[in-house]
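Sequence only, no structure available. Ideas?
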Amino acid sequence: NGFFSHPDSSICNVFYNCVSGRELEMTCVAGLHFYPETGTCVWPDMANRVGCGSNANKKLADGFQCPKDYPKADKNGQSITHPNFPHPEDCSKFYICLNGIEPRQGNCDPGLVYNEDLQRCDEPET
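Reply:
I predicted one. Tokens follow.
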């Protein structure tokens, strides 16, 4: 019983949940890798799995790149380490730039939309 990595070490977003001798193939949310030590899906740099590839080009498949010029502090003067940016076409999605340079896509829970002012998912305005 437990969570196990895919046997092909280059497939890092798929893992298996085994219970009573039965396996269930599972897939991490887009952009995450399975981390065997905790049995969870985490950012690729946290999983640190060999052979998985990386975001060396710093660009997502849809072309998003973290902007070089972004606010380094919020309106309260708090440092912004991982800035967020709205998705241009889907209000339930957004981008996270880890340390301002590593792009990741985020998704709001069903029924919520990304609120750029609040920098988080929120109820849609009516």
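The chain has a mean pLDDT of 87.
Hope that gets you unstuck.
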